[in-house]
């Protein structure tokens, strides 16, 4: 964890140094007229998540963007996202929205490419379906109810709020509207849950759906500019 935090700090320092160097010897900006960008983040696919981003440039000569990212989740819970699951029976369904304000550093020959710093907020809702042992009153053959302990279907509804700052690099393929976007940062999340069992069942690891506290936002986006 300390190594990752140090890496984020060094990356931010490097980006700021780059911005200062570029301000001294700036290249003329080539205006392309592109105001919008659309991209998909490939890493959330590992958690049965689909993050689609729409980016809007703030003004025709601005080096700033607003990025909105609708999020959808549907699929199985796996070892990559949670330590708690029973084969293919545990499922996640959910949605969310993230908003980000991005500042590109220095001046580039192509607008809205290069290094950037950004901050943002997010909200996510998850409906978890899983199986776990619990006690429940059941009707027996003699017509009486008895408490029985066995594996049953359970649910957990999770609401999670977050805020983050990130440093990233956006690279556009020469002569095309397509780009790659990498980012890494620091963030904080608050989570609440409602479940059919006592406790929180999807909050064991930083990558889990209901985990609160500090986390490292990281992403790899593939997209195109319009």
Describe this entry's structure for a reader:
With 226 residues, the protein is mainly beta. It is built from 1 helix and 9 strands, in the order αβββββββββ. Strands 1-2-3-4-5-6-7-9 form an 8-stranded antiparallel beta barrel.
Question: Gist?
Answer:
With 226 residues, the protein is mostly beta strands. Helix content is 10%, strand content 55%.
In terms of topology, how is this protein built?
Elements: H1 2-24, E1 36-41, E2 49-57, E3 64-76, E4 91-104, E5 114-139, E6 145-172, E7 178-195, E8 213-215, E9 218-225
Antiparallel strand pairs: 1-2, 1-9, 2-3, 3-4, 4-5, 5-6, 6-7, 7-8, 7-9
What structural class is derived from the secondary structure elements?
mainly beta
Percent helix, as a range, is 10-25%
Q: State the shape.
A: elongated
> In total, how many beta strands?
9
β-strand percent reads over 45%
Sketch the major β-sheet: 8 strands, antiparallel, barrel
User: Order of SSEs, N→C?
Assistant: HEEEEEEEEE
Can you list the strand order of the major beta sheet? 1-2-3-4-5-6-7-9
List keywords for this structure.
single chain, 226 residues, mainly beta, 8-stranded antiparallel beta barrel, 1 helix, 55% strand
């Amino acid at each position: 964890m300390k190594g990752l935090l140090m890496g984020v700090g060094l990356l931010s320092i490097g980006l700021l140094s780059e911005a200062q160097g570029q301000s001294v010897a700036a290249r003329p900006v080539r205006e392309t007229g592109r105001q919008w960008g659309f991209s998909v983040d490939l890493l959330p696919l590992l958690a049965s998540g689909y993050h689609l981003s729409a980016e809007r440039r703030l003004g025709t000569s601005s080096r700033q963007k607003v990025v909105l990212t609708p999020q959808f989740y549907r699929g199985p819970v796996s070892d990559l996202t949670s330590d708690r699951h029973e084969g293919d029976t545990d499922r996640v369904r959910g949605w969310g929205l993230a908003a980000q304000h991005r500042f590109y550093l220095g001046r580039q020959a192509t607008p809205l490419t290069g290094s950037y710093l950004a901050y943002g907020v997010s909200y996510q809702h998850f409906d978890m379906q899983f199986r776990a042992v619990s006690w429940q009153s059941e009707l027996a053959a003699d017509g009486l109810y008895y408490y029985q302990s066995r594996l049953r279907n359970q649910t957990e509804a999770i609401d999670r709020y977050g805020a983050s700052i990130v440093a990233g690099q956006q690279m556009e393929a020469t002569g095309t509207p397509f780009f790659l976007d990498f980012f890494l940062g620091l963030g904080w999340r608050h989570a609440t849950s409602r479940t059919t069992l006592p406790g929180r069942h999807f909050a064991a690891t930083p990558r889990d759906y209901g985990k609160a506290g500090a986390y490292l936002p990281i992403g790899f986006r593939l997209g195109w500019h319009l």
